[in-house]
Structures are given as structure tokens and as C-alpha cells.
């Protein structure tokens, strides 16, 4: 039986001891989720990098398109009132 | 199309890293697959010369260190294959090409490890040369490659330091140990200098790679940096550089060194080095002999997946 390339690509996310969130650290190939997790442990946490690992098959990830960049991210630029620095506070008001 | 190329050129000029989904010229993609793929192969083939001494390491400490190091090399191969795959290359396909001799790996791993001191020389000189090369690649224009390099450089500095320490112990040991250390330096000095590739006027891929900022420094610049870094280290532990022409130039602040044996370099690249055949054979045996295990894992995974659905 030909099983060439049947090992899936997995993306690996690790949360470090002090880290608040999981961070993408790389990818690997594995036949199934369990082995992906074990290999991620061996490859990406050899030097105390983290205490929690997520692995997810790359094919399950949908990402934004680079050529849509401007349309996609523009709305955040024309809503400056979303930022606290937009508001003027007189001198002398503290702790705000 | 022209707009895409313009955008790409602008990104390169402004040092905005190129990412997997960005448009890139075909030749850029191809040359990166070649370079990253061969870099990955070098990590994998590089496990063999050192692996040769795992069962014979002289103390439990050195043996544990060597095991950790070879484990790192496997991880480095993995990071790099992943980076190559973001460009659309296929890992199994790259392995087939390596075994068929259609993709290269670093010339250095075609040299045999004849004594324990050779393992130390590899850590110190070979990984030292790799670091000079790879630190420069941490700012390469393709994002996934640059990020892999950052990870790898952190780990390589462990490799280099342990190699230097092992060599220093030998150089400070018995006369026999010191001789063994010197012999290893004699054997690996020139091959380490060859790791930086052909000289600038004979390097066909360089101009384009520099323009695309895949390479940030020329082969000769990096080689000079390595020599400047390393000669004082050799002298400091009481060993000699096997080059009668080596001398420090007060004016330039650099070491001048003798001519590399380019005939040897090209012979090794063409597959006529001391261990080319042996290395590829070992890879082929492992790949073909392990096929049934890979197939078993794949079939088991399919079975588990069906169970989950049912």
C-alpha cells in the first residue's frame, strides 16, 4: 500500500510558564494527533519553553489573504475614537 | 503581474519580510526551496558523522551532551523542512531527491570522524562556521526561514561551546590527547572554511540572492569573519592553525589566510569526497528500511480517524 505523504502537517502552539497565551512556534509532520503532540513536546519544549501545547492540523486553519490586506484591516484606522489617546483630559486629572 | 512584482521589490527594499501567502517571483521561490531544502538535508546528514561516536564517547557526560546535540540537529532539520514546505515543497519529495543525489547537503559532512577529537572539532569549528552563516540568515528576506534561523542559532551556540570545551580539555590533557586535538584541527580546518561556499567571483547564485536579500553577506565576507573569530581561539588553547600563510594584518585588522584547495571542494560537491557514498547509503537504508513503519503509522491513523467518525 502506498502511503506517501499521508503524514499531516500540524501547527504547534506553546504557552510558556509566564505566558498568558499560546504562541505559534512552528510546525511538524505526524501521522496522528497523539504523535504530533509527543513530537512537539520533544522538538519545541526541550529547553523549558512551555507548559502547555496545542497542535492543530494546518488544513483546519483559514487565514486572511495578503492582497486583501488594505480593505481587510482599514476599518481599524478610521475609528481613532477606539483608542484612549483620542480623548483630551485636562492637566491635573490623575489616575486616568 | 507587474504590480505584484513592484510590490515584492518594494517589500524587499524596505526589509518587510516575505511571507508564505505573499506573491513572489518563481525564481525566488525556487532558489529558496533549493537553499532551505539543502540546509535541512545538511542537518539530517550531519547527524551521521557525530552519531558515529555516540557509542564510543569517552565519558558519560560527553555522551549525554553528544546525544542532546544530535537530537537538536534532528529538530533543526524539522524546522527547516517546515520552512521549505511553506513554499510549496514536499518533504517526502525532498528526501527522495536527496537520496537520488538531485539535492545537495553541506560539503563538510562528507568527511569522516576518525577520532573522538573530530567530534569536538565538529562542534567547535563546523558549528562555529554554521553560526556565522546562520546569524547572517536571521535577517534573510523570507520570514519563515529567518524565524527558523533565530531558533537554530540559539541552540547552535550550545553546540559550539560544548565542542570548544571538549577540545580545550584535550589540548590541556596528555601529550597524546593534545596531538589528537591538533590532528583533528588539521583535518577539519580547511573543510570548515569551505562551508562558506565558492569564492565571490565563482558563486553563480550570489548576485541574485544578495539582490533579493536572501543572503546579506557574501561568502568571502562570512569566511573572513569566521577566520577572524576562530584563529585567536585556536591559539588560546595552545594549538596551531594548519595554514603556513596565516598572519594578522595590522592595517586591515583581519587575518590573511592561504588559498583554499578548490579542486578538493568541487570534487566533494560532485560526490567524490571521502564519505559521500556512505552518507547517502545510510540515508537510503533508513528511508527505505523504515517505509513499512511509516506506512503502519499512517494506516493506524486512518483506522483511528474512522473510529472517531463512526
TrEMBL record, chain A:
InterPro entries: PaaB, PaaB_sf. The gene is paaB. NCBIfam families: PA_CoA_Oxy2. It comes from the Bacteria. This is 1,2-phenylacetyl-CoA epoxidase, subunit B. It holds the Pfam family PaaB.
TrEMBL record, chain B:
GO terms for cellular component: cytosol. GO terms for biological process: phenylacetate catabolic process. It comes from the Bacteria. This is 1,2-phenylacetyl-CoA epoxidase, subunit A. The lineage of its organism: Bacteria, Pseudomonadati, Pseudomonadota, Gammaproteobacteria, Moraxellales. Pfam families: PaaA_PaaC (PF05138). The keyword Oxidoreductase applies. The gene is paaA. GO terms for molecular function: phenylacetyl-CoA 1,2-epoxidase activity. Gene3D superfamilies: 1.20.1260.10.
Amino acid at each position: 500500500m502506498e502511503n506517501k505523504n499521508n503524514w499531516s502537517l500540524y501547527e504547534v502552539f506553546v504557552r510558556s510558564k509566564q505566558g498568558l497565551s499560546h504562541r505559534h512556534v512552528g510546525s511538524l509532520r505526524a501521522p496522528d494527533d497523539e504523535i504530533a503532540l509527543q513530537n512537539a513536546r520533544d522538538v519545541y519544549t526541550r529547553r523549558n519553553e512551555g507548559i502547555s501545547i496545542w497542535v492543530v492540523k494546518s488544513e483546519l486553519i483559514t487565514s486572511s489573504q495578503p492582497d486583501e490586506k488594505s480593505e481587510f484591516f482599514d476599518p481599524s484606522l478610521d475609528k481613532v475614537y477606539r483608542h484612549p489617546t483620542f480623548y483630551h483630559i485636562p492637566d491635573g486629572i490623575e489616575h486616568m | 503581474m507587474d504590480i505584484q512584482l513592484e510590490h515584492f521589490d518594494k517589500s524587499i527594499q524596505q526589509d518587510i519580510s516575505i511571507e508564505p501567502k505573499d506573491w513572489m517571483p518563481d525564481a525566488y521561490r525556487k532558489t529558496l526551496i533549493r537553499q532551505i531544502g539543502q540546509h535541512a538535508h545538511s542537518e539530517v546528514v550531519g547527524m551521521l558523522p557525530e552519531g558515529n561516536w555516540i557509542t564510543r564517547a569517552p565519558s558519560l557526560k560527553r555522551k549525554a551532551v553528544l546525544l542532546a546535540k544530535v537530537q537538536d540537529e534532528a529538530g533543526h532539520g524539522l524546522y527547516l523542512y517546515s520552512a521549505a514546505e511553506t513554499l510549496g515543497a514536499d518533504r517526502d519529495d525532498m528526501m527522495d531527491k536527496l537520496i537520488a543525489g538531485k539535492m545537495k547537503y553541506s560539503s563538510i559532512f562528507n568527511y569522516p570522524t576518525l577520532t573522538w577529537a573530530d567530534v569536538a572539532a565538529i562542534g567547535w569549528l563546523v558549528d562555529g562556521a554554521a553560526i556565522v552563516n546562520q546569524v547572517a540568515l536571521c535577517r534573510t528576506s523570507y520570514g519563515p526561514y529567518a524565524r527558523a534561523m533565530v531558533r537554530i542559532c540559539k541552540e547552535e551556540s550550545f553546540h559550539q561551546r560544548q565542542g570548544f570545551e571538549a577540545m580545550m580539555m584535550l589540548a590541556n590533557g596528555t601529550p597524546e590527547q593534545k596531538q589528537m586535538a591538533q590532528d583533528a584541527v588539521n583535518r577539519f580546518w580547511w573543510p570548515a572554511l569551505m562551508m562558506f561556499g565558492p569564492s565571490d567571483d565563482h558563486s553563480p547564485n550570489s548576485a541574485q540572492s544578495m539582490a533579493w536579500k536572501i543572503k546579506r553577506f557574501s561568502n568571502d565576507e562570512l569566511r573572513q569573519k569566521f577566520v577572524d573569530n576562530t584563529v585567536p581561539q585556536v591559539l588560546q588553547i595552545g594549538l596551531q592553525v594548519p595554514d603556513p600563510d596565516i598572519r594578522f594584518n595590522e592595517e586591515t585588522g583581519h587575518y590573511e589566510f592561504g588559498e583554499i584547495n578548490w579542486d578538493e571542494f568541487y570534487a566533494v560537491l560532485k560526490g567524490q569526497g571521502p564519505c559521500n557514498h556512505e552518507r547517502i547509503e545510510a540515508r537510503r537504508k533508513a528511508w527505505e528500511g523504515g517505509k513499512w513503519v511509516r506506512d503502519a503509522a499512517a494506516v493506524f491513523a486512518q483506522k483511528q480517524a474512522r473510529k472517531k467518525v463512526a
